[in-house]
Amino acid sequence: MNFKKKKLYIENIEAKNIARKFGTPSYCYSLNILKNNIQSFKNNFKSINPLICFSVKSNSNLQILKEIKRFGIGADVVSKGELLIALKAGIDPKKIVFSGVGKTFDEIKFAIEKNILLINAESESEINEIEKISKNKKKKIDIGIRLNPNIDAKTLKKISTGKDEDKFGVSDLTFLKILRKFKNSKYLNIKCLSVHIGSQITDYRPYKKMIAVIEKIIKKSKHKFDFVDLGGGMGIKYNNETKSLNYKKYNLIIKKFLEKNNVKIIFEPGRSIIANTAVLLTKIIYIKKNKKKNFIILDAGMNDLMRPALYGSTHQIIPIKKNNKIINKIHDFVGPICESTDKFLSLKKYQKINEKDILAIHDVGAYGMALSSNYNLRTKAPEIMINKSSLRVILKRQKLNNII
Asked: What pTM does this model have?
């Protein structure tokens, strides 16, 4: 995304022309940014050669998954649907890990039938279920156990996953108990220690604490793991105030860990790969003014982009045509949904804008379309992939008749 002569371009195509052709709201992705992000992630951890499993929950578009697959990347899935779409994209089953706290009998059975790399279990009850199905199928299944390391990732409370109060994983004592119980199972190979402490992490220090906890429990367990799955959660810069994660320091911590532990590292990045690849183009329907503020009412709502309403997260909103006229008044950018939480951003000043102008909501590639819904019986936006000077629709705009 860049500006040429004060006009926003996505690669070589002017955003105005995309909005004119496909309407608004529309999700627009840059293939070049996606490729650069993947290469950059690989380069950051080149010395440890991890297995990278893209977090499908962050973006499950089939065409995007096909592009990611071309880089030899695997998938982290949390449902049968995500597993199905990863396989349909051509991702190697031996590069797929199945996470999640509530896998059903049907989902576990399907994962076993597809011979995926690992089922990362999150409770003793789940492991009992996996063993029962494995016994029935007369197969020995490779699994991981997800440890809850009780670490505060210092991120948004609603996207924390590694503290005692969170529903994910098991405590260190339960972890050791499970190892003892199932270590001689005829139907299970406990091959992986899995962990994930949260999302949008921009400080390497919580990761350092996490690895210290892992090291301690491996030592206590005396168990030989083939894999250590460190999850994902690497944050991005949503605005100028956000820090960038120091990948160099994180890499050095892992290298030190690998000197004592001969395991293959697995990563499950989502946001760091896909978030900044996309903008959501949206049109100003109305500008409603009162003494205190201007309400900028957009045609994109919380059904299109849920993150601000769900997490209180912020995304930059930038006009696709810049000017130098600044209005010193509060601007509330809101959607058309009948909820007070249908609000994207509040700014103390903004450039002069008019009804029917097009704006771009930035960094929406992760948990944008993936969290969208038909709330208020609204259709879902299309997804468009831009590659240099060409574009293609990778998901059509929903039609109201197809929903009703």
From this structure: 0.93
